[in-house]
Amino acid sequence: MALVKMSELLHSVYGNSYAIGSFNVSNMEMAMGAIKAAEELKAPIMIQIAEGRLKYSPLELLGPVMVAAAKLSTVPIAVHLDHGGSMRVIKLALDLGFTSVMFDGSKYSLGENIDRTKEIKALADKYGADVEGEIGKVGGAEGDYKEVDIAITSVAEARRFSEETKVDAMAVAIGTAHGNYKVEPKLRVDRLKEIAAVVKCPLVLHGGTGLSEEDFHNCIHNGIKKINIATASYDSVAKYVKKTIKEKPNANYFDISDAAVQGTQANIMKHMKIFGLENRI
Predict the structure, then answer these.
(1) Burial of 261 (0-12, 13-18, 19+ CB in 10 A)
(2) Phi and psi at residue 247, to the nearest 5°
(3) Range of lowest pLDDT (101-105, 134-138, 158-162, 198-202)
(4) What is the DSSP string of 239-260?
(5) When comparing pLDDT for 137 and 72, which is higher?
(6) Which of 25, 132, 154 is nearest to 83 (CA)?
(7) From residue 237, how far is each of 33, 126, 177, 230 by CA, in Å?
């Protein structure tokens, strides 16, 4: 099974019955926990790291770990750069063997976003890798980036972006936000349905942490093929580590390391089951 492309996983999804989970990891323990979850559930998975987190997890160090872990796995795994913003980092990810990269050009005008995304697509094509683009603005902040307001994706702009860039996946903004929600999200599933009706490439949902099971199912049934989860995993790791230290005040490094693996695995298994991924291979 091992290392595969994002497009291979996304194009295996038929009938809006399930979605591929794409989970952020920030160290070896989280990568191990993610893969243990996928192997236990016999499910495909994507593991990813966001450019905004690289000051904590240098890509030169973590990237090879992610790729090696995928190659050794018994389930199909795509290794992905999340929210890439610079050509240097995107090229580094491709050089390290990532099978897909996301270019987040949502801060630019539509025309500039299209032009920059096409440039990234041309580069990734040389590596045989896939590209995810973004149109509209998902709220909150990814990593240490500045908070941004939600800007719901326009149907016309989504169609133009998809047709001109020929991206392999497209993230859309329908009311979600990165991080933990301060107020209950109000999803524009109606807009998602409209976009799915005119766009051929697989659609991606960012800002999955904090959504209800019903929210996820509504998005999946109306066209979402890939769902990103980051904050929920980080929160789960912190919870498991704190619990370990509370129950075992003399906990050593290996106890804490194992807690990080378990915290990641537990959160990812929970979300994979919601996404309908169990026994998909």
Answers:
(1) buried
(2) -80, -25
(3) 134-138
(4) HHHHHHHHH-TT--HHHHHHHH
(5) 72
(6) 132
(7) 10, 37, 21, 11
pTM of the model: 0.92
β 130-135/169-172 pair status: parallel
Q: Contact at 8 Å (CB) between 208 and 227?
A: yes
Give CA–CA dist 195/190, Å, rounded.
Answer: 9
- Positions annotated as catalytic residues are 82
User: What band does 181 get if pLDDT is binned at 50, 70 and 90?
Assistant: very low
Domain range list for the chain = 6-274
Superfamily of domain 6-274: Aldolase class I (3.20.20.70)
Contacts for 65-72 with beta carbons within 8 Å, 24 or more apart?
65/28, 65/31, 66/25, 66/31, 66/98, 67/3, 67/96, 67/97, 67/98, 69/28, 69/31, 69/32, 69/35, 70/2, 70/3, 70/35, 71/2, 71/3, 72/2
- Other C-beta atoms lying within 10 Å of the C-beta of residue 79: 30
